[in-house]
Protein: MFS transporter
Organism: Arthrobacter alpinus
Amino acid sequence: MVTVRDEAPFPGYGRGTNGYRRILAALACAGVATFAQLYSLQGLLPLISRDLGVSASQASLMISVATLGLAAAVLPWSFVADRWGRVRTMGLAVALATTFGLLVPAAPNFEILLLLRTLEGAALGGIPALAMAYLNEEINPLHAGAAAGAYVAGTSLGGLSGRLLAGPVADLSDWRLATLTVSLTGAAAAAAFLWLAPRPQGFSPVSGGGFTDMLARLLPPLRSKPLLALYAQAFLLMGSFVSVYNYLGFRLEAPPYLLPATAVALIFLAYLAGTVSSRAVADLAARFGRRTVLLASITLMVSGLLVTMAAALPVILLGLVVFTAGFFGAHSIASGWTGSMTATGRAQASSLYNLSYYAGSSVVGWSAGLIFQSLGWPALVGALTVLAAIAAALAAAMLPSGRVQPPGSAFR
């Protein structure tokens, strides 16, 4: 049961207002604190593999256990935030994550390392689980789509910053000092988030916390075919995306390329294409419809993926840029659409999207390594292309084609 406030509903900050700018700046800092820490080890996996004497798929568990912990934690964080508030809960989550992140470099063995990464991921689950719910509550609905695109663009910059920082530091020292450097950067970003985030005005705390109440907030999104289709996009497309970035470094550090860690880290500059595309798709969706732009983004993603099978390094990098632009375009549409479809249980609907998103990162990101180790890059590309095709088929069959989906219509 939701507590009813006496005052008129908060209309949300409009584009160009101080509150709008502060929310986007705060969420950008949260994106840096979250995604810099979560994925900074991705470019260091070959170094970790050699240093700890583990295989490529075992090294990729450094990413998979963190995203699995995040996936498992997003729903519990959403229920906490329903009673405690979005900003306070996100602040707690990012503080805990930074604490675990600072312990990671001191891990004495691979097993403890995996445990700390799991706990770090679980703590980080409080950010993406709540960011879209917070944004949709505080931003005027007319501008929520553009704000969602700006947030996703910020997350891409957050992920990029961690990877670009970790690679050169690892070349100068080792991967442990690189991880510590990224965690300290995340701590600074977390402090900036708490300072910038305005006091919530669109949030209504939920009274009652029994199991029945929790189930009542979960069932509507789980019964919605359009939302289930969006959750499938999250699982399949994110799994494919993480797989490419997990294992391309192994390919480029091997003959004939023999790239050092710093050079491998530079491939993450392709994230800048995602920064651009995640903001551009909002205007395209307003003109052509969300489903059309989502399907076009998946097509772009697959096209870039196929190009990475080329032998020439510049062509591989071009394919990676196209692939990345397509993924972030699709993710921006799908994640923003999830929030706009829900009238009640918004935090839970967004959390289910994030659960699917990071479950795909964990499951597909690890299992794709088995294909890469056994059959090579072309086989990995083929498998990921099939996953993207399934995502596109589900989107075409289950998502509405109109330009605007009013809040709550997914549950009808």
Notes: The domain at 18-202+217-411 is CATH 1.20.1250.20 (Growth Hormone; Chain: A;). The CA atoms of residues 3 and 206 lie 6 Å apart. Residues 1-6, 404-412 have pLDDT under 50 and may be disordered. The chain is about 80% helix and 0% strand.
